[in-house]
Fold this sequence. Notes:
Order of helices and strands: HHHH
Structural class: mainly alpha
Number of helices: 4
Distance between the termini: 39 Å
Shape: flat
Largest sheet: none
Strand content: under 5%
Number of strands: 0
Helix content: 55-70%
Mean pLDDT: 84
Low-confidence stretches: 1-11
Amino acid sequence: MTISGEARSAGATGVGPGQLADEDLLRELLRLHEMRHETLRHGSDDALDAHTARTGELEAEYLRRFPQREVDPGRLRSGARSRT
């Protein structure tokens, strides 16, 4: 279950993604991605659920702000085929 930015209190899972400056959004995403493995392996079910929800919220906000983000051609299906 995800919690919308309006419904969640600031202390529940952090500041709403829409309220973060671009630099803060990128820093939060980096921190969450770095912590993902540790949370998956050692976190409680509740911690993993909260981590998944927060990551989804921040990633959705990133994609909303940067719809034309740089895409590495090597990360596309055609790029993967050229490596084989």
